[in-house]
Amino acid sequence: MFRVSIYVVLILHIVLVTQISLRVAAFSLRQNDLTSENNESGRTHVHTTPASKPLLPPEDGGMSHHDMPPISGLLRKCAPCPDTVLCVPQIQCPAHVRMHDHEKPQICDLPGDKFGYCCTSGQNHTVSNQNKARRSTLPLILPVDVLEEARKNFKHLMQDIAQIPVHPGQPDFTHGIMFHSTPQEDLHQQQLSNNALQQVITSQVFSKKEHVPVDDFITNNVHVKFTKTPLGRHCGPPPICRNINDTYRSFDGTCNNPLPHRSLWGAAGQPMERLLPPAYEDGIWMPRMHSTDGSHLVSAREVSRALLSDIDRPHSKYNLLLMQFGQLLAHDISQTASVRLENGELVQCCTPGGLSHLPPHQTHFACMPISVSPDDEFYGSFGVRCLNFVRLGLVPSPDCQLSYGKQRSKVTHFVDASPVYGSNEQMAQSLRTFHGGRLSMFDDFGRQLLPLTRDRKACDSDEPGKTCFKSGDGRTNQIVSLITLHILLAREHNRVADALAILNPSASDEWLFQEARRIVIAEMQHITYNEYLPAIIGPMAMKRFRLVPQHHGYAQGYNIDINPAITNEFSGAAFRMGHSTVDGKFRIHRSQKSNIDEVINIPDVMFNPSRMRKQEFYDDMLRTLYTQPMQSVDSFITQGLSRFLFHGHSPFGLDLAAINIQRGRDQGLRSYNDYLEVMGQRKLQSFGQLPSEVGAKLARVYHTTDDIDLWVGGLLEKPVENGCVGNTFAEIIADQFARFKQGDRYFYEYNSTVNPGAFNLTQLHELRKVTMARLVCDNADHLTLNSVPLAAFVRPDFAGNSMIRCDDPNLPVVNLNAWRV
Ligand code: HEM
Ligand SMILES: [Ca+2]
Questions:
Q1: What is the CB neighbour count within 10 angstroms for residue 354?
Q2: Is 331 one of the annotated active-site residues of the chain?
Q3: Is the interface score ipTM higher than 0.95?
């Protein structure tokens, strides 16, 4: 009785503190540690099921959680989760958003004074609908008349519209290269995507006929099959894995999960996952285009103009190498592709020169062009009123069931160095020499560069002498600094293969190749989890999401139920935070002592890598990357991306900020406010809750706080402690990398009970010594680069960091002797 009354007092106290602090400070699109919101979620759950979730009163009987000093042993406050259930951050239990109070999971303590959930529903956002009764009037099998009507609609949409392509040489054409892989792969993707689009159109026809509520489609609660119809030609069971215990992961990511029906989880070409159900307006594929008050959302270009200006804010700690590694990593784990014309060409949605939108009868159904206002201070001066934008291609339903549109990612979702090796066997083969386990390289007077390619699409150019490179990823030539890291990793592969060959003179090419690949993937994973992620999301999120690599022994945590797929929220918004870290210029120092010798505008080195042929450029570029600060993650984007992206010979280019916003709407990302809720925080009720300047800016382009695009809201948050991004992006990114760790059987830290290709403990101990600094040193030309910052992602002038010579014994080396067999 005494305890209960203390609870009541405490709850009331927390309610008051929460309400007051919410009003005064906690939010702001700049929250860092929203302790009051955490109290809020704690309060709710304690209140709903007090017996099972006691929030022990603090010792002095009255202090709010907010006021409490951080204490170790937080479990004193919450009962631990039952043995078989993990305590996870709320975002990893998204089903809670759709649950009634009495259904919500038990709360539990996480590091950093945060609450989590003892989550039994896993990451399935639709879980709360599982018990929802199916509408008995809905047919179980797709009616023939629906099928026929949808077939006609689809044919009309595909064939009766004008086939207006994008022409080479235009910025839009270059944009298309971002979706490019091999011609065969592109064709295959188009066939699948067309089948998926036909399915989506069928869902739309069905939904209209049967008056299916939007909510039923977005929560996968329509169970109508189209098996044995032409629509179902791509559905069927996943491939059977012949050898589930292969030492080496497959190139396309198949057969990672050992359960037969999950053999495609994380594989190239599989759909992206979602944290929350899509915000498609029809529940099926119509993009988010309207405000919650019914009016049209303001054009993505208007939002970009109003909120995302170009101001130089160099990061005080991190350098451009962090930005560049981020882009390479993004390409490892995600690549979408837009819908194409019937003949495979890119779709055009605007009239020539972007002067206006195409008339409706000529407009492709995947068009979602971005409107430009006549008073646009930049595009207005060129008369541009329309920016081309085409929606993303989809994946057909594997189970022959009507559903909402699911976007496809073309590369392996895992962190597995797929930009180096490709995302399918054929690509991997085309990159190998089949001698000594090596990758093919182009020997440029003694310097090893990536092989050259004749594929015109790699660079969109016929210019004689223009050199473009080939790697495992179609986006390699996008910017010269990205090529630099591709070269670095390919060289690392060959360096390791050569060392292994010396240690094992009789080893086969295949063994040397696969072992070197296994090592390079482990190095990529270790640098990602040990150096890159902590810099981006900060140490607390690393701990809460169990992402910190171990110093000794094997890691635990593989979970057969975790789908490692990339989430739409991650690829469509959170990880695009990287676009804010790009500097519009590279300031190249030709030698370690000289002042700046050349200033390069980034659009000049996009799909134009000829500088790489200059003897010292590779070293110079690496030195520039680790010396020059990256830009801070904030609402400022360089005009190199927001006005001149891929401009080529045109006076204006694309606006990547507007593209990101439009992409989020295309992908059906919900508004920023909904993601606050999934993290257990209070939704924003009014712009007045924000710092006045931010609130006023947002109010100019959004009608209500429920309209804020996720990418925009996330960028406006203040960075988390010792990290680069705000809390919302930190959580979405942390969740994603937790999926990659828990859902990847071949993760480098797992032992042989989980990982059939596990390293032995001596090898693992060596791999944990790898650093970005070591990779740079081991793979430089050593023409102008002989030293690196010890913490390679940190500016060398940042207190505590320092330059270290590549031959300094204090720079750890991975000793490959552990691979002598
Ligand atoms: C020079 C710098 C960069 C340029 C020019 C660039 C350009 C682009 C372009 C054109 C797209 C496709 C946009 C669309 O149509 O939706 C894209 C997508 C993306 N970018 Fe960047 N980007 C750069 C750097 C970065 C960095 C540093 C990161 C992260 C740290 C990043 C993360 C992403 C992600 C996650 C996507 C979505 C990929 C997908 O799923 O298809 N980018 N970028
Ligand atoms: Ca990958």
A1: 25
A2: yes
A3: yes
